[in-house]
Amino acid sequence: MKDIYWGDKQDYWKDPMLVNSYRYPSIRSDASGVIKFSNLSAAIISGDHRRYSYSEQYPGENWFVSLTPEYKNIELRVLDINGNPLSNANVKMWDVSPYYPDYESKIVVESTTNSEGKLFFDWGEENVPYEALVPFRDLRLIKVYKEGYIPSAKYLSVLDAQEAKILRGENHWIIKIQMNPK
Q: The pTM is what?
């Protein structure tokens, strides 16, 4: 069975920033085919993204938020296999805790898509800015249901947000979920 979060993120599987380095060979020549920075890690390292929160050049800018699109008014688009919008699709989103053993989760969005197959939401909790949640609440599970279609699910994390901003240049985060007919 394919992992629904990491299964489509093979670019990260060999990234030393995200996995334990003890798994890799200790001799540099042996490691060259095993270790590879992901496109996202390479872009962050190579770019002008690592800033201090209170630098003179960027006063008042939070360095972490500068690596991601806005966490407000995030756009979810639910589409059929031809790319057409699906209106009135039921959407549920959970905040998923990464902490073992309970992996506590709670529903943070429960709604339906509009006539254009879209749903807009904020990542943070009511009266709690996103920055206060990092790194404690950086994983979401979205499940979409619609009569005549196979339910669809997608995990989202800060890595997805950083890919949107750094690799695709999105300041407004758009998430697409495709549904297949039954």
A: 0.75
